[in-house]
Amino acid sequence: MEKEEARTETRERVVVRMAGDSGDGMQLAGSRFTDATAVFGNDLATLPDFPAEIRAPAGTVAGVSAFQIHFASRDILTPGDAPDVLVAMNPAALKANLPLMRRGATILVNEDAFSVRAVQKAGYAVSPLEDGTLDPYTVKRVPMSSLTTRAVEGIEGATSRDAQKAKNLFALGVLSWLYDRPVDVTERWIRGKFSGPVCEANLAAFRAGWSFGETSELIDVQVKVDRNVDVAPGTYRNINGTEATALGLIAASVKSGLPLVFGAYPITPASDLLHALARRQDMGVRTIQAEDEIAAASMALGAAFGGALGVTCTSGPGLDLKTETIGLAVMLELPMVIIDVQRAGPSTGMPTKTEQSDLLQALYGRHGESPLPVLAAQSPGQCFEAVYEAARIAITYRTPVILLSDLFVANSSEPWRIPQAAALAPIDPNFRTSTSGPFLPYSRDDNLARPWAIPGTPGLQHRIGGLEKADRTGAISYDGPNHARMTQLRAEKVDGIPVPDLQIHGETDADLLVLGWGSSYGTIRAGARRVREGGGRVATAHLQHLRPLPANVGPLLRKFERVLVPEMNSGQLAHELRARYLVDVISYGKVQGQPLLPSEMEQEIWRHLS
Amino acid sequence: MAAPELTKADFQSDQETRWCPGCGDYAVLAAVQSFFPALGIPPERIVFVSGIGCAGRFAYYMDTYGMHGIHGRGPALATGLASARDDLSIWVVTGDGDALSIGGNHLIHALRRNVPVKILLFNNQIYGLTKGQASPTSERGKVTKSTPFGSIDGPFNPVSLALGAEATFVARTIDTDKQHLPMVLRAAAEHEGAALVEIYQNCPVFNDGAFDALRDRKRGEINRIHLEHGQPIRGVTRDPDGSLRLGEGEPVIHDAHREDPSFAFALSRLSSSPDGPTPIGIFRDVRRPVSGRELTGQLAAAHAGADDASLDALMRAGDTWTIS
Predict the structure, then answer these.
(1) Which residue is closest to B110 within chain A, CA to CA?
(2) Band of the pLDDT at B319, cuts 50, 70, 90?
(3) What 8-state DSSP symbol labels residue B98?
(4) B200: closest CA among B74, B55, B103?
(5) Is A575 helix (H, G, I), strand (E, B) or coil?
(6) Is residue B4's pLDDT more than 80?
(7) Min CA distance, B86 vs chain A (Å)?
(8) Residue in B13, B36, B67 to test binding to A, most A beta-carbons within 10 Å
C-alpha cells in the first residue's frame, strides 16, 4: 500500500513528548531526536522527566519515563507546555501523560502493549483504546513491538530480546519521518554506539519506523519545521546544563592555569556533574568521590590551599552538610566554588523534582555573619558562563562562591553557541611569591582580596584557620573592635564585587516588570512574549547575580508601578527584595516539583495587567 | 648547592604557645621542632593541618605552612591538599575527640585510601578544650562533667581501629619520651602512604595521670612493651592455640611488615587501657599503593598541556553545526 505523495504542512513550532516504561529507552530516543533536530538547525529546548525509582515495577505508572522536546523555526525559550504529539509505549505511559495533552493533540500508541494485563497494571479497568477515553484526541495505533520484531527477524545473530529492546528506535524512526529529521545523524550514532547484530537490529528498527511513516496511510501528513535562520553566526552544539557546567569548570581551569580538583559525594541530581568531570583526566581534572558531603567540600578547600581550583557540587541535604566547610572558606578567604543543583526539599524531599528553594540558604545559611557571592544559572548553555564567572570571582576575590543551578536546568538541553577559548575573560590567580617586606596574610589589595601564597613558596610560610584573624597579620585575635572590622571587611569585599547592571527586556515604561532568577528565565520570557503579542505592556528582567545584586535593582523596582517575582519556591527572592529595598513586590510561587510553564506565566502576567 | 643546615629555630613560629602549664602538647611540640631539621625538608614544603581541640593549636606553632581547620575534618582537608600537590610533606594533628568522634569517618577513609599524610593523634582520653567531657577513648565508668555517674560507654582502641581501617602504618608513642617519639615520627615520615601515630598525651587539668603507668620512669620500665621489628617482644608469649598473651614463655618475634594485619591487631589487643603493660612502637608498616601516587603526576602533565586549542577541541567534540 503505497502513498501517492505525503501531504506536508509547515509549522513554526512543535512539542513532542515520548513516554514509556523506564526500561524502554525513552531518554535515549529523545536525546537522539534532539541531536538530529539540533543538527538540522531548529532552535530547541528539552526536558527529561525521570521516575524516582531506578526500575519501578515494569508497566506501572510509577515507572514511566518521559522526554519532551520543543523545536521551532524561531527562537524558543522553554521545553513547551502542552505537547502536540505524545508517543506512548504502553498503557501506563498513556495514563501518566494524558493529563498534559490538549484536545485535538495526536497520540501515537504502541498498540501491541495494550494487553488486558498491561491495561490493568496501569490502573485502567478497560483498555483506553476501546472505551472512548481517547475520543478528544487524534489517535494513531501503531503495532510497534511486532513491526520491530519483523524488521529484526532476518538479522543473523539478533535475538528476540534485541528486537524487544529496539522498539524505541522504531518509534524514533516514525517521529523522524513525521518531522523530516535527517537520518544520517541518527544512523551514524547507532553505528558508533553499537556493534554486531545489536547494531544491525537497531538500524533495522529505526529504518522500519521511518518506512512505516512514509508508507502507511495511518500518518497522512508530514510536518515541516523550517530551520531557524534568525540566529547569531557561530558554531553550535546541543548541550544540557550539566555538560555546560563541566566545560565551564574546565575552561576556568585552563584559563587560570589552576588544576581543577573536584570533590563530590553521589547525590541526585548533582552526580551527573561528577560523572562528566571524572571522564576528563585528559584535561588534568582530578575528581574525588569523597566519603561524605562534608569531606567533598573539605577536599576542595584543602586543594585550594595548595593552589588548585577547588570545586564541590551537591543537591538538597548535601548543601546543609557542606555549610561548615563553606564557613571556614569564608574565614580563610580562599577561592572555592560550590555548585548546588537544587531539588525539591526539605530533607530528602523529592530528589528527582526541581525547585529553586535554596536561595535564602545560599545567601544566609551559615552561622555568624558569613557573606559570599551567589550566582544563578538561567539556561542550559548559560551554565557555562555562570560557572566560569563563579570561578573567576572566587579566584580574584579569594572567596567561596555558590552557584545555584537546579534539576531542570541541569537536565534540559538547548543549542549552545560555542565560545572561542581565546575570547574568554582572563583569570589571574596572582599568587604571592615576593618576599620583600614582612608577609601579611590578611593584608588586602584594591579588591580587598588577601594574598594567596601557596605551600612550596619559600619565605611565605604562614598559618590560617577558622579562628578570627587580626587584620593584616592574620594572627589569632579575640579583640572586639578587630572582629567588628574583619566582619565589615568580609562583607565589603563581597558587596564591592562589580556585577553588570540588570537589563530590561521590553519597554522600560511597561505597566509591569517581571523579575526572575535562575532557570525560570526562558519561561518568563516566553510568557511575557505571548502577553506582548496580545497587546499587554510587560517588561522582564533576570538576575544572574544574587549577591551582590546589581546596583540598579533598587531604582528599577521603584520605577515600575508593579513588579511580579515568579519563583519555584514560596517567595524567597521576593522576601530578599522587600527586605533590601522596601518595595512590596508581588510574589508568585510554585512548589510542585515542576518547572513554571509559559501558559501559567502568561495567565499570571495578564492577571496583574488588568 | 647544599641547602643550609636547618635548626629547631627554623620550625618555631612567632606565635606564643598557649597550652596549660604542664600540658603534654609542649613536649610533643618541642620534640617535633627538634626532629624536623633532621628530615631535611625545607619548611616551605611542609604543611600542618589540624582540626579543633587543644591539639588543633599545634599548626599555629610550627613555622611551616599550616591550616587550622574545623572539627574532625583535618584528614579530609589534607586529602584534598595531597590530591593537588605531591611535592609536600603533609602532617595532620588531631586529638581523640577530633579524630575518633566527630571526624571518625574522615580518619578511616584517609587510612583506607592510603593518602600520603602523617596523622598524629594526641590521645589524652578527655575533651580538654571544651573543659572536661568524656571522649571516645575515655574508659568505661569515667566520671566527667558530662558523665557525672560514670561513662556507660566503652572506649575505642585507636590502634585497633586504624588497623581495621586498612592502615598501612600504625604506631604508638608517649609525649614525654624524647627518644621514642622522634624514632616513631621518623619511621612515619619515611612511610610512603598514610601513617597513624597515636601519642599518649597527658592532660594535667582534666585527666592528669592517665598514662602514669607508662610515663613514670620506674613504672614505665615495667609496663612498656617495646615493639621493634625483628626483635623478640619482651613480656609477650604465644599460646599453643596461636593467640598472643602477656607473660613469659615461647618468645614472639615482632614482624611489622606482615601483610596480614591480624598479628598487629592481636598485639593491639594486649592492653585495653594504658594502666598496665602496654605495647608501644610500630605495630604495622607495610607497602600498599599510595592514593593518587601516579595519578597526581599524570594529571599535572595533562593540565600543563591543556591550552586554548585543546579547550576549543573539547568544546567542539561531537555533533556541531555552523551558522554563517
Answers:
(1) A291
(2) confident
(3) I
(4) B55
(5) helix
(6) no
(7) 10
(8) B67
Q: State the pLDDT at residue B318.
A: 85
- Whether residue B101 is contained in a domain is answered as yes
In this complex, the residue of B50, B301, B319 whose CB is nearest that of residue A237 is B319
Q: Kindly give, in sequence order, each residue whose CB lies less than 8 Å from that of residue A131, ignoring residues fewer than 6 positions away.
A: none
CB contact under 8 Å between A303 and B84, yes or no, is yes
pLDDT > 80? residue A5: no
Q: Do A291 and B63 touch (CB under 8 A)?
A: no
The answer on pLDDT for B87 being more than 60 is yes
CATH number at residue B272: 3.40.50.970
In the block, cell 485535538 appears at A104
| Closest chain A CA to residue B77 | A302
Decide if B318 is inside a domain: no
Asked whether the beta carbons of residue B69 and residue A328 sit closer than 8 angstroms, the reply is yes
Is pTM beyond 0.90? Reply is yes
Q: Are A494 and A547 in contact (CB under 8 A)?
A: yes
To which residue does cell 510554585 refer?
A590
Contacts of B83 in chain A (CB under 8 A): 261, 286, 288, 299, 302-303
Lowest-pLDDT choice from A40-54, B160-174, B199-213, B286-300: A40-54
Q: Residue A1's pLDDT band (boundaries 50, 70, 90)?
A: very low
Average pLDDT of the segment spanning B281-296: 95
Domain range for B68: 8-305
Whether the per-residue pLDDT at A64 is higher than 80: the answer is yes
Q: Is residue B226 part of a domain?
A: yes
pLDDT of A22 reads 87
* Dist CA A47 CA A69 (whole Å): 6
Amino acid code (one letter) for A494: V
Distance CA A24, CA A166 (A): 9
CB contact under 8 A, A305 and B319: no
Enter the DSSP assignment of A327. Answer: H
- In which band, very low, low, confident or very high, does the pLDDT at B293 lie, cut at 50, 70 and 90? confident
Question: ipTM higher than 0.90?
Answer: yes
The C-alpha cell at A102 is: 490538549
Q: How many domains, in total, are found in chain B?
A: 1
> Residue B1: its pLDDT value, please?
42
Residue at B147 is within a domain: yes
Domains of chain A in sequence order: 7-224 (3.40.920.10), 237-423 (3.40.50.970), 512-609 (3.40.50.920)
Q: Is A281 exposed, middle or buried (0-12, 13-18, 19+ CB in 10 A)?
A: middle
Instruction: For chain A, count helices (H), then strands (E).
Output: 20, 22
